[in-house]
Hints:
By secondary structure, the chain is an alpha+beta fold. The chain has helices at residues 24-45, 53-60, 70-85, 95-98, 113-120, 152-166, 258-271, 273-282; strands at residues 2-10, 13-21, 66-67, 128-131, 136-139, 172-176, 179-183, 193-198, 201-210, 215-220, 225-228, 231-234, 248-255, 287-292, 297-299, 306-307.
Amino acid sequence: MKEYAISQKLMGTAFTLGLLAEKEAQANLWLEMGLNEIKRIENLLSEFLPDSETTKINQNASLSPIKIDAECFELITRCCSLSKLTRGDFDITVSPLKKLYQFKNTQFEMPVGNIIDETLQCVGYQNITLNNNNCTIEFKNPGTRITFAAIGKGYASDRVKKLWLANGVTSGYINASGDLNTFGHKADKTAWKIGIANPDNKNKMLLFVTLPNSSVATSGDYEQYFTFKNRRYSHNINPHTGMPLSGIKSVTVFSPGAELSDALATAIYVKGVTRGIAFANQLPHTHCIIIDEKNKIFFSKGLSYETVSS
């Protein structure tokens, strides 16, 4: 079997899909199937598309309960469960806070404190009311808005994997700008290797982890950030304080699913090194690597890895 791959920018991310197949025609069919699934998810979840479920929710859910797509409802339900698990460190209602900041890698002035405090009133998964009987959602606060930025790519990746497995693909990967979802093995029968990039140079690897049938997601400040008073701040926002995060360059999470890894990487970033490692150590089949602002590396327990020779 040979490896075939295709790349395309979707959901604001560079996706590369790869798989093993006997024939090129079959591989192309499967790869196109994967791209179409990501496009479908983008049309469903993007907050920037006028006809998406997310736009529909953000425009109407504060007025009255609205019925939404069952798939979107189930994802929001899982998001709220993850918010409870992480004690609110992962929260899809962080959207209004993100609009207070511009992450263009330039000097920037912080928003005035009272604006942050006022916006925080709209934030919190507790502002979401879900009705399982008829798939309706309602916001308790008129300013509440949701975003799937911290989980959407992972969800799309899991959907492609599920679709491929159902259609006969035995080995493959979905790479969303470094967030990797793998199953099976490479053409030479070895396991897929997951590289952890140097946060100061993402083209260089610090170490490699081999975890068969695993998913990895990284949350970091190397692509979107701003500098304020000589301090670098991440595009990740603390949903409790309304402030952007600093002190950590990257958080990488390994778990059985891309959706879960995506959400946990954000949550652990918010928790910080000590609480983040302790949290990861409590979760089954889950590991994390944290690199702080001084390039010190922290590992959760039980993670095997190999360093890159300099």
